[in-house]
Structures are given as C-alpha cells and as structure tokens.
Amino acid sequence: MPREIEFRRIPGLPPYVFTIIDSLKLEARREGRDVVDLGFGNPDLPSPQVAVDKLAEAALNQRNHRYSSSRGIPKLREAVASLYQRRFGVTLDPETQIISTIGAKEGFSHLMWVLLQPGDSAIVPTPSYPIHIWGPYFAGADARQVPIGDGTDASGFIDRVMEAWELGWPKPRVVVLSFPHNPTTTVASLEDLQRLVDWARERDVVLVHDLAYADMTFDGFTPPSIMQCEGATEVAVELYSMTKSYSMAGWRVAFLVGRSDVVGALGKLKSYLDYGTFQPIQIAATVTLNEAVDFPREVSDVYESRRNALCDGLQRIGWPVERPGGTMFVWARIPEAYREMGSIEFARHLVHECDVAVSPGVGFGAGGDEYVRFALIENEHRIGQAVRGLKKGLTRL
C-alpha cells in the first residue's frame, strides 16, 4: 500500500454542507417522494435563443476550434464595453480595462492569486458566497470576515469594513463585496459604494465587487455598478457574469472590468493557465450582449413573480420573511420555534417532513446558522407545492 498523501489546501476545507442536503434529497427521491428543490441556485430558465443559434453556427466553423485568447476575443470585450456604457453610463477601454473569465468563480479565484500571498489579508463579508471567503485562503492569505448584518443595511457593513481595516494589522490589501448580495440579498446604493471608493482612494486597498446579480432586482430597483463611482477605476475592479442575467450558467462567461493594472495582472496570470472559453461560446456571448438587450429584464420579471409567490406563501403559514430587493434567493431566518436546531438540522427536517430542499445558512459562513436560503429555481406551481409541504411539516408554526 502506498503511503497516504498529505494534500495541500484541501485538509483545511470544511465539509461542503450543501452536499449533505443534496444527498438527503436524492435519497428521498429514490424512495419515490417528490422533493421540491429550492437549494442549489442553478438557473432553470433557458438561455436566449440567439445565443444557442449563434453557438451552433460558430461551432460548425472549424477555425473556431483552435486555441482562443485568455483575455477574450476583441469583439466580446467591445460588447462588454457597450453594455457598461448602455447600462451604467460608464466608459471602459476594451483593451486595458476588460478581460473575459471562465465564469465569475474562476475569475475571482485567480484574481486573489495576483492580489494576495501568504502574510496578506482580505476583508470579506460573512455570511457570503463560499468562494468569496475561501478565495483568499487558497491564495495563502487571511480572510478577515466582517458581518454583513441582517440583509437590510449595506451602509452598516461598509462602516464595519472601515473599522476592521483601521484595527487590523497588517493592513488588508483587498476588500471583497457583492451587492446585491448572495445569500443575504442585501442591496447597496450608489452613495454607499461611493463612500467606500472615497475611503479606498486614501488607502492602499483594492475593492473587488462581484456584480453577479446586476440585472436580477425587483420593485423597480436598479443596482449600481461600482464603476459608476467617481475615481472607481483607481481602486476597484468588478465581476460581471452572464450566468444569471442571461440564464447562461453552464456557458461559463464572465468578465473582470475596472482598474487597468489589476485587469492586466489577471490577464498575465491567465495567459499561463488557460486559452479562454471555447471560441464559439465567446462568439455567441458577443451576439447575445449586443442583440438580446431586453433578455435580463424578462428573466428578472420571472424571478420577481417567484419571489412574490414564495414570500406570500411563507407569510400565510406563519413564517414571516423579508422580501429581497434582488438576487434569485430568499434569505429566511429560521422560525423561532425551530431556531435551536441550527440550519443543518432544520434543513434536514424540511427534507424529511416537508419534501422541500433548501441550503443551510451555516454553509455561507459565520452568522448564517439561524437562516436557510431558498433558491427561486422552480416555477410558481412548484413553489406553491413547497409552501403546502412546509405548512404540513412545520407543525410548531
């Protein structure tokens, strides 16, 4: 028998708690039970038809099967610049301020490699999307977790970020933020972001804003890009993804935009690591950005209807929740009668007794254990079925 290998980076990772609930869901389905899956945030709506048609056309051209560019083909970067001009009124240079990434998660992870090393630290929100917390750790740095709050106040989080930076040593080099926020659904105003940009310009800090839910917002709210802030290109970069806005999760198309030396540093690293997304996908993404300009609003309207169905249903059965202003999630505090269970046991209970799968809040970091996250990835009929299951199984409400 060979000696057991001592792996690097992996031993420090906690169990991915979402797999626990996923296993319970699969087990229940094997028993013939119809579990409504509101756990994994995997968009269920089809991608734009123009994207599918252009992908098929481009894939038939053998020249597109060669290596592409890790920075993204020029027309794709130009399409992103047009999107930012049209959507946010922001002018970006496609050559120096935009780079294509193989999804936002890849872009963020490798960005941490070029910004951080052992001995450095980053400020990250908690609870948070797991890679926002673990990306700095993978780079060998420390992640100083700052509570984002109850999901209603981005301004309070920004105050806590500034305080953590002043009190910390060595001084954090990076501040990670993401509004609208997964999982808490917190949204920020342009004034909130401008205050943070002004603060960062006086310090040696890079702001990394993940704008994954740029177009998935409700009740008429339009989230700002950090690039709209005065002086943002001096201190900030932003990730924009086609995953949610264009329902193109499996395509893995995202972009890093903003401060040119940071974008260039990521490009240099990526030139050693990859040759970019499959070129027909890049071509299809270019056409989609230029031609399917109304698609993100149509997608958002669907999720807003689902949000209303779920929140109204939970309210009716005695589980009051805050209506999110954005994202494809509902961040629900566990009802008081069940709160002592913690999020993992409560999520188990929902599968066993209610035939509903959700994500345990503890999987998103400290401060999440009193919550579960619902993903709005089922239609309104199925959401209604889930609410009926919850009413039946949550007998203490």
TrEMBL record:
Task: Tell whether Phosphoprotein is among the UniProt keywords.
Answer: no
Query: Pfam families annotated for this entry?
Result: Aminotran_1_2
Q: What class of enzyme is it?
A: transferase
Q: Does the keyword Transferase apply?
A: yes
Family membership, please give it: Belongs to the class-I pyridoxal-phosphate-dependent aminotransferase family.
Please list the cofactors this protein needs. Answer: pyridoxal 5'-phosphate
CDD domains per the UniProt record, alphabetical: AAT_like
The record's EC number reads: 2.6.1.-
Q: Which InterPro entries match?
A: Aminotransferase_I/II_large, LL-DAP_aminotransferase, NHTrfase_class1_PyrdxlP-BS, PyrdxlP-dep_Trfase, PyrdxlP-dep_Trfase_major, PyrdxlP-dep_Trfase_small
Q: What keywords tag this UniProt record?
A: Aminotransferase, Transferase
Question: What is this protein called in UniProt?
Answer: Aminotransferase
Q: Which PROSITE patterns match?
A: AA_TRANSFER_CLASS_1
The Aminotransferase class I/classII large domain covers 34-376
Q: Give the Gene Ontology MF terms in alphabetical order.
A: pyridoxal phosphate binding; transaminase activity
Q: Could you tell me which PANTHER family the record lists for this protein?
A: AMINO ACID AMINOTRANSFERASE, GLUTAMATE-PYRUVATE AMINOTRANSFERASE ALAC
